Amino acid sequence: MGTRMAGKGKALELRERPPHTEAKHKLLQSYLGAWFPILSKRNGRLLYYDAFAGPGRYSGGEDGSPIIALKTLITHNHAEPMADTEFLFLFNEQDKACAEHLESLLDELKAANQPWPKNMKIGVTNTNFVDLTTEVLDGLGEATLAPTFAFVDPVGIKHTPMSVIQRLTSYPKGELLVYFAHDTVVRWCGAGNIDQALTDLFGTEDYKGAAGLNGSKRSQFIHDLYKHQLHTVCDFPYIQSFAMYDDRGKRLYDLYYCTRASIGLDRMKQAMWKIAPSGDFSFRDRFAGMDVIFGAEVDTTPLRKHLLEHFNGKAETIEEIIEHVIVATPFASNHVKRATLQVMQREGLITTNQVRRGSFKDGTVVSFPGVP
Ligand SMILES: C[S@@+](CC[C@H](N)C(=O)[O-])C[C@H]1O[C@@H](n2cnc3c(N)ncnc32)[C@H](O)[C@@H]1O
Predict the structure, then answer these.
(1) What is the pLDDT of residue 5?
(2) Which of 55, 63, 307, 318 could form a disulfide with 101 if both were Cys (CB 3.0 to 4.6 A apart)?
(3) Ligand 1 neighbour 93 (Cβ under 6 A)
(4) How far is the C-alpha of 25 from the C-alpha of 63, rounded, in Å?
(5) Is residue 66 assigned to a domain?
(6) 187 and 334 assigned to the same domain
(7) What InterPro entries has UniProt attached to this entry (predicted)?
């Protein structure tokens, strides 16, 4: 633990950043690097809401999520075309010393990046997530929240009721990256002593169905129920979760990314594959820095098999195939052409209407001969 002084002189213990937190930050950075330019194309104003912002720094000097988000935009190589979009960054942190520490870091960041871009506005609030979110949304009345990426990253289960998540994400183009305390929920869901908190968290009492299950069945039940609630209560068609394990192999928490746009799902899946190259949508502290064990190439054998079965006897455009891969398989758009279709073409498993082999430009029709 390192000690830093918070803005008004109160000592603040910064936390160490374990490898799974670094992995979370890489996901965020990678995804925002795509979200900012994609959304800025058609929107004059975007909101990045880091609802549990933390102090902005870890004990080894590593950046926290608010600083990561700002630096991703400041250093973005598409900054110029995004200049007409107003980016609002709202950082909320309940702990006073943490909030003050964050504010002092934001001042430093602004001082180091003068002139500060006119289209980047920052607000810091020092209150709790439920109160702030309710106040902001009540204040909107009939108005609509700007397209928002909400990063909801608490510790524990008590601060993120499904009803508030639902309200926050009910606006057009709303997206969510939310922490879910998998280990805590799996352990306590049958105990009966924190049922009100669990009911609020899930927005249902159905978690009680896990009480009679053990081991991986219980874990899967809880994972799937939270996903189901985000689907049905918050009306998110596309959800991808990602599991974080500590150095003893315990599954600490899951992140659930939720969107209504398949392009968002695609970009987040690409970010997840980067830090989990074996394709299991998880990160283990034990294997941190041992990327070599996963091999350099993504194994697309399951995707080739899936496409043959799914498109058996059909001809589809490359756009339709890619869309299907994004929304109906664990793979992402960057796995389709070179690593999958080119290999299938070489093996004589598909044909296309293109003269040049290996070319899958827009409009290409790919034929999957039927299995007799
Ligand atoms: C996991 S940390 C956030 C880490 C940060 N997102 C990052 O990645 O660098 C959670 C933070 O939420 C704050 N917090 C706890 N309960 C809160 C609440 N109800 N509303 C807002 N912030 C809260 C804690 O003080 C803590 O700093």
Answers:
(1) 44
(2) 55
(3) yes
(4) 9
(5) yes
(6) no
(7) Tcm_partner
DSSP string for residues in 294-324: G-SS---HHHHHHHHHHTTT-EEEHHHHHHH
**Domain span holding position 338:** 301-367
Q: Does 65 contact ligand 1 (Cβ within 6 A)?
A: yes
Query: Within a domain: residue 6?
Result: yes
pLDDT digits (tens, 9 = 90+) for 300-336: 999 999 999 999 999 999 999 999 999 999 999 999 9
Does residue 128 line the site of ligand 1, with CB under 6 A? yes
What is d(CA 99, CA 91) in angstroms, rounded to the nearest whole number? 9
Closest protein CA for atom 8 of ligand 1? 65
Whole-number pLDDT of residue 370: 76
Nearest-CA residue for atom 10 of ligand 1: 154
Point out which residues pair with 4 in neighbouring strands: 12
Share of the chain above pLDDT 90, in %: 90
Task: Give the total number of structural domains in the chain.
Answer: 2
Judge whether 221 lies within some domain: yes
Q: Is 282 in the pocket of ligand 1 (CB under 6 A)?
A: no
Omega into 302 within 30° of 0, i.e. cis?
Answer: no
Q: Which of 294, 327, 349 is the last residue of a domain?
A: 294
192 and 117 within one domain: yes
- Confidence band, pLDDT 50/70/90 cuts, at residue 372: low
Q: Phi and psi of 87, rounded to 5°? A: -105, 115
For ligand 1, atom 4: residue with the closest CA: 54
Residue range 15-43: mean pLDDT, rounded:
97
Residues 256 and 357 in one domain: no
**Residue 182: CB partners within 8 Å, gap ≥ 6?**
219, 222, 223, 243, 251, 252, 253, 254
154 lines ligand 1 (CB under 6 A): yes
